[in-house]
Amino acid sequence: MTRNVAEPVASRLADGREILFFSSGGTPSIGVDRRDLPARPTEPVTTVRRDPTTGDSVIIAPARQERTYKPPRAMCPLCPDPAGRSSEIPAEDYEVVVFENRFPSLATPAGYHAAPADVADALQVEQPGLGRCEVVCFASDHDGSFAGLSQRHARLVIDAWSHRTAELLARTDIEEVYCFENRGEEIGVTLPHPHGQIYGYPYRTRRTASLLRTAAAHRAVTGTDLFEDVLADEIADGARILVRTEHVTAFVPYAAKWPVEAHVYPHRHVHNLSELTDAEADDLAAVYLVLLRAFDALYGAALPYIASWHQYRSGADEGYLHAELFSIRRSADKLKYLAGSESGRDAFVTDKTPEAIAQELRRVIG
């Protein structure tokens, strides 16, 4: 039932990094990257350390201090540059582009094979920072946004995510693939050009491990799938439903943590984006756009948000593809800060009921 995603046109940047051009029709005109870039490292430059008190994995990546920070528009590294002198994208124009991050948190150098970890000291466990970090440019328009894309263009982004998910999950050095978008300076974005990222982690992240533990415990008690039950319960309740189509439902979750929050589930149980059918991917693109446009309409201005996709390997015992979208803005002129309770204890306190959040979003969805 899965769909065939068209293969991108691949090229290389000046330092050897891979760049992929996704197009809805025709062959993109790709130029030559003429920048004088330093050679890529042959050894990992980041590490992953284990917190002995929590078991959490922490990526140590000091080289990222040198990453591009709020450059002038003329030097935006995500705008097309046919001359190949000032941008990561040596092309006249493009639809969707994915390339290896120049300042990655995780990277596996070509031909590198990690030695067995030395765990003689159980309190100080360190591994090389293997994996993959990619940048996904949603469009060539510097002043655009995901919400401003056409449905066909949004579907192309979903196809790009699907392609990269399948490719990365096939790698032995990657345990989890995370597609996400940070939007807005309040979130910490330093490049305003519309883009997202993909992280291929060499370990299972804490959030994913927690979700899967809860799902396994739910199945042990009920014999049913947690995520299927959550979706069915939200549909039956109806109080927090935002959008429902033939293949996709969006809702505010029962215990929403954020002042603006919405989750998106396909109706069919799939593990990741690459398993969607054409009809499901089309519906997903349409619903996703409705939500992002509602976010921007809520306070009459571009809303800072994080869009987070939960994905799992095909055939996994637990896990259900879904997206979480949330914002730290709690009113037109106030932000939700993760202060003592949230940051110190991961214990969220929310100022709005999930039902009120749903009502506000339904008002602007119309």
Brief description of this entry?
By secondary structure, the chain is α+β, with helices and mostly antiparallel strands. It has helices spanning 151-169, 206-222, 226-237, 278-298, 340-345, 354-365; strands at 9-12, 18-22, 47-50, 57-60, 96-100, 126-128, 132-137, 176-183, 195-201, 241-244, 248-251, 260-266, 305-310, 322-327, 329-331, 334-335. Helix 4 crosses helix 6.
User: Whole-Å distance between the termini?
Assistant: 33 Å
Number of helices: 6
Q: How many whole angstroms does the radius of gyration measure?
A: 21 Å
Under CATH, the topology of the largest domain can be stated as HIT family, subunit A
Total count of strands: 16
Question: What is the H-and-E element order?
Answer: EEEEEEEHEEHHEEEHEEEEHH
List the helices and strands and how they pair.
Blueprint (H helix, E strand, L loop, with lengths): L8 E4 L5 E5 L24 E4 L6 E4 L35 E5 L25 E3 L3 E6 L13 H19 L6 E8 L11 E7 L4 H17 L3 H12 L3 E4 L3 E4 L8 E7 L11 H21 L6 E6 L11 E6 L1 E3 L2 E2 L4 H6 L8 H12 L1
Antiparallel strand pairs: 1-2, 2-5, 3-4, 3-6, 5-7, 7-9, 8-9, 8-13, 10-11, 11-12, 12-14, 13-14, 15-16
Helix pairs in contact: 1-4, 4-6
Notable traits:
single chain; 366 residues; alpha+beta; HIT family, subunit A; 2 domains
Structure explained in plain terms:
The structure is a single chain. This protein has 366 residues and is an alpha+beta fold. It has 2 domains: 9-203, 2-Layer Sandwich (HIT family, subunit A); 207-365, HIT-like (HIT family, subunit A), CATH 3.30.428.10. The chain has 6 helices and 16 strands. The chain has helices at residues 151-169, 206-222, 226-237, 278-298, 340-345, 354-365; strands at residues 9-12, 18-22, 47-50, 57-60, 96-100, 126-128, 132-137, 176-183, 195-201, 241-244, 248-251, 260-266, 305-310, 322-327, 329-331, 334-335. A hairpin with a 5-residue loop joins strand 1 (9-12) and strand 2 (18-22). Helix 1 packs across helix 4 (278-298). The two termini are 33 Å apart.
